[in-house]
Design a protein that fits this description.
It is a single chain. The chain is α/β, with parallel strands linked by helices. The protein is built from 17 helices and 17 strands. The strands form three sheets. Strands 4-3-2-5-1-6-7-8 form an eight-stranded mixed beta sheet, with helices on both faces. The protein has a six-stranded mixed beta sheet with strand order 12-13-17-14-15-16. A three-stranded antiparallel beta sheet has the order 9-10-11. The chain is globular and about 60 Å long.
């Protein structure tokens, strides 16, 4: 890409002119969607519209449940998601012996620090609304491992999950025998997702990276659209200690000739992404320039948005999720789908507004400012780093009028726990510190020591068992008539939120 993009040659003070010229002049690309659309309508006729089950329960059939538990146990015996040997060598070898299933469909690849899963769910809903059959791969799961692989809008059936594992198991063992290290838990799941998508078959895969980008196991796909959600500090021991260093790893998902949908970023991270795009001749659409949130207002059960996409404005969009960050995720998702359809490059047109409205109104994002109980209101949010905590804090302050908010916090030991607690300190009247059941969990006493430094001793209560912590927080919220409008926010980790969700009867 030897010449600057049109967006780099114009003053941002005249966004309308800039936007129109970008639409007219942007690099052409061919998503080859005619064949995809031709076959998908027949598949849709047989499969029906997605049911939208967000978090599946354990299988009702005892034999199926037993088989699923056996697969989960085998997967758990591999390297966990936090133990990595940064390379795509093993997953590439697995794809090779499986016949390259990841090349059987186009894909949208999503990286970033926060907002990836919510954005993936939105992209999936939008693609479904346009009669495309989707596969979605996200991580981690809230309650069930089957959440990670979604087919046509719903988590993969447990029977199919088990079948997929059994189908690829001989090939996994073959690769294990040839490599210095066995395939990890995440690598095997990635292989299962790509195989399941090819077998379905899907029209398009929506794939969230596990960590980073360049050497992430998902990065054996050649996506025509790369999405980069906001980058902040997380996994600093593996990805880097500055947004720019982390962006350098995440930029690995940008492939030659792709379109990059870039959410609002720290300046140094944006510079890294733009440099990579120039190197591989990718087209970049930036939030705040080529697309964005035009307006938003609080509505019952969510928010009402006007979004500006690559093809124009989309008004009166109801999004049943809370927080400004979800509005920005919606703008990113919309633009990603427009780019997939060639809008802004091949075509200067808008997508059907009714389909867009219907899609966004159907979006679910479990564990993201999710209300799971009333009287008192209990909200779950999987924030696990300071940026996520700040977004959750702002969202809950905007959408809920709690007179008093009690926090239940259980974190992993490898996170910026102090930064997370400091982000929540202004909105928590009191905090109950606890721990989840995983080995990665920070001990309740260690967490309490940090919490006391942030909140003061009189605002911190320690309950090592999560069920006791929930009971204590609900009691604090109910204890005084003066605080009839009190609420509880459970946060700090996806695992903590998932376990709380089960304890509160949402599993």
């Amino acid at each position: 890409m030897s010449e600057p993009r049109p967006s780099d040659r114009h003053d941002a003070s005249d966004p309308d002119d800039t936007f129109e010229e970008i639409v007219d002049e942007a690099t052409q690309r061919d998503p080859d969607l005619a064949v995809i659309e031709a076959g998908s309508r027949t598949l849709r006729t047989h499969s029906g519209h997605p049911q939208g089950e967000a978090v599946p329960a354990r299988p009702a059939d005892p034999e199926t449940d037993k088989a699923l538990r056996a697969v989960e146990q085998e997967l758990a015996g591999r390297w966990g998601e936090t133990k990595l040997e940064p390379s795509v060598t093993r997953i590439a070898a697995l794809m090779d012996v499986l016949g390259e299933p990841q090349r059987a469909y186009p894909s949208i690849h999503i990286t970033g620090t926060n907002g990836k899963t919510s954005t993936a769910r939105m992209i999936e809903a939008l693609l479904n609304a346009f009669e495309l059959r989707t596969g979605r791969y996200t991580s981690p799961h809230v309650q069930s491992i089957t959440e990670r692989i979604s087919l046509d809008g719903s988590p993969i059936a447990p029977e199919r999950f088990v079948e997929t594992y059994e189908d690829i198991k001989p090939y996994v063992e073959m690769v294990d025998a040839q490599q210095p290290y066995r395939l990890s838990f995440f690598e095997v799941l990635t292989g299962m997702a790509y195989a399941a998508f090819a077998d379905a078959p899907v029209d398009v895969a929506v794939v969230e990276v596990g960590m980073g980008g360049t050497w992430d196991a998902t990065n054996v796909i050649d996506s025509t659209v790369a999405v980069v959600t906001p980058i902040s500090l997380d996994h600093t021991d593996r990805l880097g200690t500055t947004p720019a260093e982390i962006a350098g790893e995440k930029a690995g998902v940008i492939k030659p000739g792709a379109t990059v949908i870039l959410a609002q970023q720290p300046v140094d991270a944006a510079q890294v992404m733009l440099k990579k795009a120039v190197e591989v001749d990718a087209t970049v659409a930036r939030e705040g320039m080529e697309f964005g949130v035009t307006s938003r207002e609080i509505a019952v059960g969510g928010q009402l948005l006007t979004l500006r996409g690559l093809g124009g404005e989309y008004e009166d969009i109801f999004l049943p999720l809370y927080g400004a960050h979800q509005a920005h995720n919606a703008a990113v998702a919309l633009s990603a789908v427009e780019a997939f359809f060639g809008i802004g490059a091949e075509q200067a047109r808008s997508l059907d507004i009714d389909a867009i409205r219907k899609a966004f109104a159907s979006v679910l994002s479990p564990g993201r400012l999710e209300v799971v109980r009333s009287s008192p209101t209990v909200v779950l949010d999987a924030a696990h780093n300071p940026a996520g905590a700040k977004a959750a804090s702002d969202g809950i302050s905007e959408a809920f009028s709690f007179s008093r908010l009690i926090g239940v916090v259980g974190t992993s030991g490898d996170k910026d726990v102090r930064g997370l607690l400091e982000a929540f300190e202004p909105i928590f009247a009191e905090i109950v510190v606890t721990q989840n059941s995983t080995p990665r969990a920070m001990g309740a006493d260690e967490l309490a020591a940090i919490a006391v430094e942030v909140f003061g001793d009189d605002r911190v209560q320690v309950e090592p068992r999560l069920d006791d912590a929930l009971e204590a927080a609900i009691t604090l919220a109910e204890e005084d008539d003066e605080y009839a409008g009190a609420g509880v926010l459970v946060t700090g980790s996806v695992i903590t939120v998932g376990e709380a969700r089960l304890l509160l009867g949402r599993g």
